[in-house]
Write a structure and sequence with these properties.
Chain A: It is found in: Cell outer membrane. The complex is a heterodimer of chains A (180) and B (423). Chain A is of the alpha+beta class. In chain A, 32% of the residues lie in helices and 13% in strands. Chain A has a single domain, classed as 60s Ribosomal Protein L30, Chain: A. Chain A contains four helices and four strands; from the N terminus they run H-E-H-E-H-E-H-E. A four-stranded mixed sheet of chain A has the order 1-4-2-3. In chain B, helix 2 packs across helix 4. Chain B is globular and about 70 Å long. Classes of the chains: A alpha+beta (180), B mainly beta (423).
Chain lengths: 180, 423
């Protein structure tokens, strides 16, 4: 009985498989580039991404997909090179009053955790103030700090530290969907 | 005696609140100059129980760096034995402890002992503690505290507990252990960071900052019940909780009005009151021992330095002047000194300031000291530091002479907080 059962199961499996199309049967594109799990971004109707945000906020070709502002050691001034980026985000927030933004300040690992928490807060607050000056509303913005607790780069050298001295901008759409 | 049974309940509650793991191990890297030679005889009675208790007493006393243990060559003496003081004196012992493990009149396990001054050939007193098989080490800590106090004149800290955070495999564990690192129990497990644990003065609760809501929020956590409540979750960041000495208030740091500023709040989260008004960062508040003032870190002068302000606010006074980075002020429980972290040539080191003379002493030679915490008797300071790229805890005597290292095998240890005296 056992011997009979196995071939029966196998044929059932083969039958099951044969009901789905075999991709390169017709000599088409390689298998790897097909299917949801292999390089095809899922698109939701209405032009929003998987988080429910408009694609212009996350499409790598859009300036608004750039969400990080980097800082110098012990500093919390937004450097000139980021003024354009901040202005683009301010413009978006002005045009989309229902949208909210969470600004998370970060620091490198050196020094007191609590002092770093406050330093990260000052960085987030500096970005928030720039956005408000350019027309974004207080109610749209919250600045918080993650201090040294959530490093982007886990290394222990200057190149890691410079990546971690940073403020990130996260969006939430009017319907409550988004990145925070 | 009732206290030990209450402690047993507490330890049990802790154990059931989370799985005990990540045991701390201790390594001593220094000793005091003039150590008191003391002999701890084996307790008469059950040999296994005696071994647990006497080894706890011996390692406690030795670890303190203030005692030198004299070999007792397996002598078991009970608390009523006739003591040959001359013999012990000739072996080099200035003091001798002898005792027994037996049954109290109501049938419970009881550890009794007596302490002798062999020089003067007199008894210095004795005590008996109700215990159980699970609580033998606790009884040993109580005996060690008694001996420590009789011989040094200061209260012992062997029965106290410490809290710290272990980061292991992407998880953050808030753990509670005995002061010797044994008996670790996990009070809270989180996938998000936990920082700044602070003991309530009665030792029943911890305040801390958790990032579980994707931003820093302050909680108060009752250890025995595991019950947690939010003390501050305002817009912005909520951090750096510190208990007032009467346990009624917490000094906290909020950024709800812009930058980090000091506030005071009742322990239940009510009665918020702003304490500082500066354009810069004000953080890391700590009440002075008398509760009258608050030490804190501020960059109002251009670099982070330590300041002092009245407990209800007012004019702040600068405390540190040397160097460009002095943070994490911790006033000693005896009110005499201030421990803090000082950056010197890019290295972060533990320093103390004598509050009367304002003299500063650097106590370590490390690169990454953080989060100092005084033992309740002000003799030792627990810090987080780094050895070989891994976070470890280190206990340093207030004079810098004695150093102990506590590490966890499979993780980073950080954010230590030494609990209050065991009541």
């Amino acid at each position: 009985m056992k011997k009979l059962l196995i071939p029966a199961l196998l044929s059932a499996l083969i039958l099951g498989c044969s009901s789905t199309p075999i991709p390169d049967e017709n000599g088409g594109a390689p298998v790897e580039s097909r299917g949801a799990s292999s390089g095809v971004a899922p698109v939701t109707a209405g032009g929003v991404d998987a988080n429910g945000l408009p694609r212009e906020l996350t499409d790598p070709k859009s300036k608004l997909s750039q969400r990080s502002i980097y800082f110098d050691l012990d500093k919390y001034e937004v450097k000139d090179e980021y003024k354009d980026l901040v202005a683009s985000h301010a413009k978006y927030l002005v045009a989309n009053r229902g949208f909210k933004m969470l600004i998370q300040g970060n620091t490198d690992e050196r020094g007191s955790r609590e002092y770093n928490l406050s330093l990260g807060q000052k960085r987030a607050e500096a970005v928030k103030r720039s956005l408000v000056l350019l027309g974004a509303k207080e109610e749209q913005l919250e600045s918080v700090s993650l201090g040294e607790e959530k490093p982007k780069n886990a290394g222990h050298d200057e190149s890691a530290w410079s990546e971690n001295r940073r403020a990130d901008m996260l969006y939430k759409a009017a319907d409550g969907r988004g990145e925070f | 005696m009732q206290r030990i049974t209450r402690r047993a309940f507490l330890a049990f509650a802790l154990l059931t609140a989370g799985v005990a793991q990540a045991q701390l191990s201790i390594e001593i890297t220094g000793a005091g100059a003039n150590r008191i030679p003391v002999a701890i005889a084996d307790l008469l009675g059950d040999a296994t129980a005696s071994r647990v208790i006497t080894s706890t007493v011996r390692s406690d006393l030795e670890r303190s760096g203030l005692f030198k243990l004299i070999d007792t060559t397996g002598a078991a003496l009970d608390e009523n034995a006739q003591i040959n003081h001359g013999d012990w004196k000739s072996r080099g012992a200035d003091a001798l402890a002898a005792g027994s493990i037996g049954r109290s009149p109501d049938g419970r396990m009881e550890a009794r002992f007596r302490l002798y001054d062999t020089q003067k050939a007199v008894s210095l007193g004795g005590a008996a503690y109700i215990t159980s098989n699970e609580q033998l080490r606790a009884a040993g800590h109580r005996i060690a505290d008694y001996i420590y106090e009789k011989l040094t004149g200061e209260k012992g800290i062997f029965s106290t507990r410490i809290a710290y955070v272990v980061k292991s495999r992407g998880q953050f564990l808030l753990q509670i252990a005995d002061a010797d690192g044994q008996g670790a129990a996990t009070a809270l497990t989180s996938t998000e960071p936990i920082i700044s644990p602070a003991w309530s003065p009665d030792g029943s609760k911890l305040a801390y900052v958790s990032f579980e809501k994707k931003k820093p929020v302050i909680y108060v956590h009752s250890l025995a019940s595991g019950q947690r409540s939010i003390v501050a979750n305002f817009k912005g960041s909520n951090s750096a909780p510190a208990w007032s000495p009467d346990g009624r208030k917490l000094a906290i740091v909020l950024s709800k009005d812009g930058n980090s500023q000091l506030y005071a709040v009742n322990a239940d989260g009510s009665g918020l009151q702003r304490l500082t008004q500066s354009g810069g960062i004000d953080t890391e508040p700590r009440y002075s021992a008398d509760g009258g003032t608050i030490f804190f870190t501020s960059d109002r002068g251009g670099s982070p330095q330590i300041y002092q302000v009245g407990a209800s606010g007012g004019e702040a006074r600068r405390v540190t002047f040397e160097g460009s980075y002095n943070v994490s002020p911790r006033p000693s429980p005896d009110g005499k000194s201030l421990a803090f972290i000082s950056r010197r040539e890019g290295r972060f080191q533990l320093a103390t300031m004598d509050l009367a003379s304002r003299q500063v002493q650097v106590l370590t030679d490390s690169n990454k000291d953080e989060s100092p915490s005084f033992a309740p008797n002000s003799r030792m300071i627990l810090i987080a530091t780094e050895v070989g790229g891994r976070g470890v805890l280190s206990a340093v005597s207030s004079d810098g002479r004695i150093k102990q290292r506590l590490s966890v095998a499979a993780g980073d240890v950080r954010e230590p907080a030494w609990g209050p005296f065991y009541k």
